[in-house]
């Protein structure tokens, strides 16, 4: 690689980590990580429990700070100091456990943080008909058919539908980067297939997708690039067409 690289912002990766390390006290959990997520591509991060995958997601989403190294957004170095900054840049994260708020309606979940408002005199209200309209549009963009009316509580959705609603929110608000921590781990095969379909729609709409998983088959199915993390280090980078499940599992386990 040449020492001087000039890149315009349209060809630069949407999100890039350069020599990123992370310590928790004396423990180093990430070691000089280099990775790039590009528009219209799916980057899959694979690794065993404790490899550092969730720490990576927390750094990329602004929940945790980098100890050392650089965070670049569309070719420019940024200080990723908080989740708010990530949101403002359109870096949307679907966390594994908190994908949606069960006690809010499906529609409300989809517009969360970007609620359409209606003013009446000095007061502002949530514009519920508009929220419902936006929610329906978001779900239909993804080709998602949920079994419920969008005014029902999200608690009534199945696990796969919850992930789809969370992805719909990210896609609807035009996220530049969609990040998902183990979106299929708790799902039955058919549901997982639907979630992978939704991810493919986000990719085709030009978003840079980062998906964390430890399901080798899902990685092979959806990835443009696979990065394997072991003990806080990237130990391999591969394209699905150039590898096999056997090779992947060797890299993941380190045997
Ligand atoms: N807040 C923390 N303080 C100290 N160690 C942590 C903290 N969070 C994670 N770790 C450690 O960092 C390592 C990577 O964890 P994590 O990123 O959750 O892995 P993964 O998501 O791949 O299972 C683990 O050894 C874990 O114990
Ligand atoms: Mg994890």
Please give a quick description of this structure.
The chain is of the alpha/beta class and 255 residues long. The protein is 31% helix and 27% strand.
What would the keywords be for this entry?
255 residues; alpha/beta; Rossmann fold; six-stranded mixed β-sheet; four-stranded antiparallel β-sheet; 8 helices; 12 strands; binds adenosine-5'-diphosphate; binds magnesium ion
Describe the protein in words.
The protein has about 260 residues and is α/β, with parallel strands linked by helices. It has a domain at about 15-100 and about 175-255: P-loop containing nucleotide triphosphate hydrolases (Rossmann fold, 3-Layer(aba) Sandwich), CATH 3.40.50.300. It has eight helices and twelve strands. The chain has helices spanning about 55-60, 85-90, 105-110, 130-140, 160-170, 190-205, 215-220, 245-255; strands at about 15-25, 25-35, 40-45, 70-75, 75-80, 90-95, 115-120, 125, 175-180, 210-215, 225-230, 235-240. The strands form three sheets. The protein has a six-stranded mixed sheet, sandwiched between helices. The protein has a four-stranded antiparallel sheet with strand order 2-1-4-5, with helices on one face. Helix 4 packs across helix 5 and helix 5 (about 160-170) runs parallel beside helix 6. The longest helix is centred in the C-terminal third of the chain and has 16 residues, at about 190-205. The protein is globular. The two termini are about 30 Å apart. Mean pLDDT is about 90; it is low at about 1-5. Magnesium ion (MG) binds next to helix 1.
């Amino acid at each position: 690689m040449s020492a001087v690289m000039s890149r315009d912002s349209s060809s630069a990766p949407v999100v890039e980590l350069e020599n990123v390390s992370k310590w928790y006290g004396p423990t180093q959990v990430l070691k000089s990580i280099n990775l790039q997520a590009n528009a219209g591509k799916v980057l899959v991060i694979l690794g065993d429990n404790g490899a550092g995958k969730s720490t990576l997601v927390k750094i990329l989403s602004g929940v945790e700070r980098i100890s050392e190294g650089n965070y670049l957004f569309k070719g420019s170095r940024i200080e990723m100091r908080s989740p708010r900054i990530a949101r403002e840049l359109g870096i949307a994260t679907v966390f594994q456990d908190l994908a949606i708020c069960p006690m809010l309606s499906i529609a409300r979940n989809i517009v969360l943080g970007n609620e359409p408002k209606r003013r009446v005199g000095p007061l502002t209200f949530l514009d519920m008909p508009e929220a419902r309209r936006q929610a329906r549009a978001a779900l239909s963009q993804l080709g998602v058919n949920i079994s419920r009316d969008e005014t029902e509580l999200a608690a009534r959705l199945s696990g796969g539908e919850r992930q789809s609603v969370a992805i719909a929110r990210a896609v609807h608000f035009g996220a530049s980067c969609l990040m998902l921590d183990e979106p299929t781990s708790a799902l039955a095969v058919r549901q997982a297939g639907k979630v992978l379909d939704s991810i493919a729609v986000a990719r085709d709409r030009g978003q840079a997708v980062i998906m964390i998983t430890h399901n080798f088959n899902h990685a092979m199915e959806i990835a443009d690039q696979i990065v394997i993390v072991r003990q806080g280090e990237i130990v391999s980078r591969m394209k699905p067409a150039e590898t096999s499940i056997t090779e992947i599992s060797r890299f993941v386990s380190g045997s």
